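FYI - complex with adenosine-5'-diphosphate, inputs then prediction.
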Amino acid sequence: MKRIAVMTSGGDSPGMNAAIRAVVRTGAYHGLKVLGIDRGYHGLIEGHLKPMGPRDVSGIINRGGTILHTARCAEFLEPEGRAKAAAHLKEHKVDGLIVIGGDGSYRGAQKLFEEHGVPCIGMPGTIDNDIGGTDYTIGFDTAINIAMEAIDRLRDTAASHDRTFFVEVMGRHSGYISMISGIAGGAEEILVPEQPTDVESVIEMLRKGREAGKRSMIIVVAEGDDAGDALEISRGVAEKSEFKDTRVTVIGHLQRGGSPTAFDRVLASRMGVRAVEALLERESGKMVGVSGQHTVLRPLSEAWECRTRFDPGLLRVAHILSV
Ligand code: ADP
Ligand code: F6P
């Protein structure tokens, strides 16, 4: 193992830069040449690889986004695209690849390994925390803190006007951001895609809140909720009930930007060291995760086969505390 490459792929997440820094510096520490791939699989297909040394990653541990840029690449879904990518890795004499991204990026890495024998290690970079094989993904902690801060701010204005707010947070297929930021922000109700909801049950909850003396309420909605997005739910509530004057805030991509928290920086740093050392140990087709206090290596397939489970216990906590 002499030359390794690193890329970020899929949706960006705060802490990806800390992860790149950790990979580049761990590589240098062990005497490896490290190449950075610009724009994920798209850049690999185009052959955009450049050498990176420890000074190229100075001053980025605190920066959101990814200096390597990221992309979603349809061409890589096809065997021809992957063959082009593998040819560039061969041309640059890359002995191992580290992919920082979500489970889609891992599926791509798995295929690169199976079809072209490229040793690959994954690092979980996504704000959704919906990857199996790890307790936490890089970026989740930052995202929930941004969402929580937004909820805090909205509560100030909601309380001042006796208003009810629907706050939409990210998570197409996962309600984790919604659950955690909702509990941390003291939300009256949390809607997640994993648990069926409808407008009627939201109205019922709002009425109970009113009867219990609440003059303003916050409902946190995961963007992928089956009852619709926050705007649709608020419109449905207005149509079918006396709650006509609610407000909707979609936090959106604000959750993906900004300086990563200490937790995400340290998580990314630990995972980066482990990922490079895994390649040195001739590991492949694995992802780095954290389990309790330890970093662990798991098969890449665990990422999508054992996605982070929905925890009804957390929703129960929110429910009890909103009495
Ligand atoms: P994430 O990694 O955040 O889950 P995506 O699902 O968008 O993001 O995946 C990122 C990229 O990984 C895709 O644009 C595609 O290039 C590649 N990819 C995703 N799924 C597959 C697959 N089944 N086979 C090959 N490549 C894939
Ligand atoms: O997977 C991360 C994520 O931010 C999801 O929470 C969200 O649904 C999606 O990416 C948004 O994707 P895009 O970058 O295409 O807007």
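Residues 9-11, 41, 72-73, 76-77, 101-105, 107-108, 111, 126 surround adenosine-5'-diphosphate (ligand 1) (CB under 6 Å). The longest strand covers residues 3-8.
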